[in-house]
Amino acid sequence: MTSISPTPLPPANDSLPAALRITADDEVRRVRLVQMKRVATIMLVVVAVVFVVARAYEARYPWLGYLRAFAEAAMVGGIADWFAVTALFRHPLGIPIPHTAIVPSRKDRIGTALGNFVQRNFLTREVVTSKLAAMKLGERAAQWLARPENSRRLARAAAHGLSGAVGVMRDEDVQTLVDRGIVSRLRRIEAAPLAAKTFELLTADGRHQALLDDALRLAARFLEENEEMIRDRVRKESPWWVPGSVENRLGDKIVSGVERTLVAVAADPEHPLRKRYDEAVERFVANLRENPETMARAERMKLDLLDHPGVAEFSREVWGDVKARLASYAERLADETEAEPDQLERWLAGLGQKVLEDPALAEKANGWVVELVTYSVEQAREEVAKLIATTVAAWDANATSRKIELQIGRDLQFIRINGTLVGGLVGLLLHVVAQSLT
Fold it and tell me: What is the DSSP string of 379-399?
C-alpha cells in the first residue's frame, strides 16, 4: 500500500537549478522522513493485525468488540490520511487518480500563487517601511562609513570604478554626448527669459545695490591709483594754445568732481544716480521678458556662443582634465604604503561621523534610505512576483515535488499517525454509544 521511502532521489546534478539540487542537509531530511514513514506504516500494520485477531475471537470474547471497533476505525483513518499525504506528491500506488500528484501537476499554479502571495503580503509599502524603519539603515551606514578602513575602501573602489569607466569611454563618444545632451538642450532653452530670471535673483532684496557699491569702490580705487594718468591725458588732449596752469586746473576739476560724485552716491541710498540705476535694471529685465528685439538679440548671442569652436574645445579640455585627474587619483590610492587618508576618504569618514553626531540628520538619513528602498520595492514588486512564477515554472516537476517532500514530508507523517489514533478513538466512541443504545 505504501513504500517505505519517497521516490528515489536523483544524485546532485549540475543540470538542475541550485534550489533543486540535493544537499547534505537534504540527505539527513530523507533519512528522517524514511524513519517517520516506517513508524506510521508500522502503526497501520499493527492496527490491521489487531482488527483481524479481534474480529476472529469477538464471538468468544465479546469485550474484543471494543478493540475491533478501535482497530477498524484506526485502519480507515490511517489509510485515508496515507492517501491524502501521498496524493500531494505522487499518484497513490501509481494509479493516476484525479486530483492526486498535486504538487507536480499544479507546480506552475503554485509558483504563480506563491509570487502573488509574496507581492501582496511582503512587498507592500507598509511592511517594507516598518521593517526598514526599525533597522535604521541610515545610522548603520554612517557607523560603517565613519570607520577609516571602510571610508578608505569605499574611496578606492569609487576611484577605481570611475577611472575604469572613464578609461573605456572614447573621447568622440563623450563629445557626442555633450553635444546631444547638454548643448542641444541649451539650444532649446530660451536665453532671454533665463537671463531675466537670473537678473531678478541678483536684484532681489536690493542685491544689485551692493553690486553698485562694489563698483563705486573699484572706481574710487581706480581713480586714486590713476590720477596722474588722467592729468596726463588731459594735457595731451588739450589744444596747444591752452596754458599749462589751465590744464592742471582742468585735471584737478575732473578728478575732484568724479571723486565727489562717487562719494555722494556711495553715502546716499536715495541718490538720484541710484534711482536711475534701479530704473535701468528694471527696464533691462522688462525688455528681456517682453521686447521681441531684445529677446531675439539675446537668442542670437546664445547661438553664436554655442556655435563658437571654443565651446567644443573647452568641453574637450574639461574631459581630458577629468580623465587625467581620475587616473592620477586612482594611481595614488593604489599605493598601499600611503598612510595619510585622502581628501575623499576624510570627507566620507566625516560625513558618517556628522550623521552619528546629529540625531536630526541621522533621522533624515534613515528616512532617505527607507524612501529609496521602498520606492525601489514598489517599482519591482510585480517583477518579483513574475520572477518567482517563471522560476518555479522552469523547474522540473518531479524534482520540485521531491524537494518539497523533503522539507515538509516528515511533519506530514504525523498526520498519518494522528489519523490512525484519532480514527480509532472515534470508532471506539461510536461503538460505545451503539452498545449503550441497544
Answer: HHHHHHHHHHHHHHHHS-HHH
Size of the chain in residues: 438
- Report the C-alpha gap between 93 and 3 in whole angstroms: 9
For 300-326, how does the pLDDT look when each residue is reduced to its tens digit (9 = 90+)? 887 777 777 776 676 677 767 777 766
The half-sphere exposure of 270 on its side-chain side, counting CA atoms within 13 A, is 0
Kindly list the distances between the CA atom of residue 255 and the CA atoms of 231, 246, 266, in Å, as whole numbers in the listed order: 8, 14, 17
Measure the N-to-C terminal CA separation of the chain; round to a whole number of Å: 37
pLDDT of residue 7: 47
Return left, alpha or beta for 101; rule: phi > 0 is left, psi -120 to 50 is alpha, else beta. left
Low-confidence spans in the chain with pLDDT less than 50: 1-12
Residue whose C-alpha cell reads 571654443 in the numeric block: 310
Please give the pLDDT value at position 194: 78
Q: What is the pLDDT of residues 388-413, one digit of tens each?
A: 888 888 888 888 888 888 888 889 99
Q: C-alpha cell of 197?
A: 530670471
The cell for 30 is 530523507
The per-residue pLDDT for 41 is 94
Count other Cβ atoms within 10 Å, centred on residue 74: 27
Instruction: Give me the pLDDT at residue 4, please.
Output: 41
- From residue 403, give the alpha-carbon distance in Å to each of 6, 114, 214, 231, 411: 11, 16, 81, 102, 14
DSSP-H helix ranges across 58-105:
64-89, 102-105
Q: Which among 265, 279, 283, 276 is positioned nearest to 213, based on CA atoms? A: 265
Enumerate long-range contacts of 229-238, CB under 8 Å, 24 or more apart: 230/254, 230/255, 231/255
CA distance 188 to 380: 35
Burial class (CB in 10 A: 0-12, 13-18, 19+), 223: middle
* Angle (deg, nearest 10), helices 359-394 and 107-121: 170
